[in-house]
Design goal:
Blueprint lengths: L4 H22 L2 H15 L4 E5 L2 H15 L4 E3 L2 H4 L12 E5 L9 H10 L3 E5 L5 H5 L2 E4 L15 H21 L3 H6 L4 H6 L3 H4 L1 E2 L5 E2 L5 H11 L3 E5 L5 E6 H6 L10 H4 L1 E2 L3 E2 L5 H10 L7 E6 L2 E7 H6 L4
Parallel strand pairs: 1-2, 1-3, 3-4, 4-5, 7-8, 11-12
Antiparallel strand pairs: 6-13, 8-9, 9-10, 12-13
Length: 324
Amino acid sequence: MKKDAITVAREAIELERDGLTALAKNLDTRFTHAVDALEKVNRNGGRIIVTGMGKSGHIARKVAATLASTGTPAQFVHPSEASHGDLGMITDNDAVIAMSNSGEAPELSDIIAYTRRFGIPLVAMTSKPGSTLAQHADFVLQIPDAPEACPNGLAPTTSTTTTMALGDALAIALLHRKGLTAEQYRVFHPGGKLGQRLRRVSDLMDKLDALPLVKPETLMDKALLVMTEKNLGCLIIEDSKGGVVGIITDGDLKRHMSQNLLSKKAGDIMTAGPKSITPDALAAEAVDMMLKGFKTPITSLLVTENGKLCGLIRLQACMQAGVI
């Protein structure tokens, strides 16, 4: 009787999960030594060359991209192309990570020989510690010789999952050594959703000269004209020394709506002591404050630096920029 699709899928996922568990359990000092060597190459201005054939090649491309995006210069070199001139892409300042489940991919032979000839550090990722690749490598990172999720044991599945995870682990270990900050990470991700979420408040805020500012004694008939003219959905109340003492939002107007609203002073309507955020904070932090930092969500937040007002960040601007 044939198994249903969900049963087959669960069994495949569980097999790959077991492979990952074994991978994590079996990590030892060889991993640390490999990270040390790769960090040294990076510190000296070299790159990490990642290579592999077939499915391992696809994983190698991904790992090279992950390394590069986390601050470790890296490049994928196709082993077959390397035999036809692309070996020139690898310098004696670099290190090579070669991926092969069997460790016997014949296409890797020229790269292996090249690293041995020029003393280039070679990190092997393979499930076969006695393979040709492992025997010639400086560092062997063994992936578990676990069953493939393929029922015939042929299609690379568990082996590619564990190889990718091991490559990711190297990238994250190097990132940790480097101490990469969110701002530095953003440099490598200027586009896309991730890049937008790492934008600073200063990138999106309305500057000081665009803000609707009135004094506490300003009558609301004039204050509302300022609010309408600036069209930011709020009024900022400042004292005679330029310090912020309050803010008036649509919610404040609704709470004080009456026939004599226009004759009241702004100081009578405002919410005193409004919260603020600094311009170097992430815009995502501002969004979190606006949506979760109050009893009810707000749509704008003051931006201050050293106690001085310098801008206003609005939820709408964050939405338009893709931060949310």
